[in-house]
Design a protein that fits this description.
The chain has helices at about 15-35, 40-65, 70-80, 90-110, 110-135, 170-190, 200-215, 235-260, and strands at about 5-10, 10-15, 150, 170. The model has no long low-confidence stretch (mean pLDDT about 90). It has about 260 residues and is mainly alpha-helical. Helix 7 packs antiparallel against helix 8 (about 235-260).
Amino acid sequence: MRPILFSIGHLHFFAAPIFAGLSALLAAAYFWRFRERAGLSREDYWNLMGVLALCSIGGGLLDYLLLYGGGPLANLNWSLQHRDIRGGSFYGTVWGAAAGLALFAGLQRKPLQGLADLLGGASAIGLSLMRWGCFQHGCCFGKPTLSRLSVVFRDPRCAVDRGVLNFPVHPTQVYEALFCLILFGILHFHLYAKPRRRPGGVFIAFIGSYSAFRFFLEFVRGSDRGLFHHFGLSTAQWWSLASLAAAFALHRLWSRDESPA
């Protein structure tokens, strides 16, 4: 693994932020490719990208600030000491983006379900790439295991806990990257490409499928469990349950909207 992809003098380029940027560009390219199907003009597209950039980054940082890394005070203290911002959360990112998307659709009078389907596909392919950056960086690491699939992080600059450095752990980042790639293939080529698909179905399928996968993945993840870890479940597992409930609620709501009067 390579937490620092390359260096120029004393300037180091870390894997996680580079892959985060690449995954954002990939998601934006997906939106661009299918913008007309969602009823977006070029101007609409760039306006939406601005909204999504603000809301997705803000949502991911806010979720981490409040629920991870020791809580708000610990995170703020770390940021003041290091003059940097640490962490992020995918659930905060995707639901922040969804909130921004809903706001944009309401203000611009665009069909929300069609835009949400683009977000579902873009999230799947973007996260698939992003997790390879996490794998290089060492964040989102797994628990120790003797499985043949195990990997060993040896670079002391990587983000794994010192207690599992040089020990075999589950490559949870790879599990998630491959799952999201397969999920994207199903969502795009089987659902989104259908001429008579139900609007909103791709987004609902993404949220439901990813949340179910992430719930079980957490049992072999060894990274920060977050502050909300009641009944033996991590913060991400509670997020997964809430997201599954939200997917079910959206399915009922959007199905009702399509029902004849």
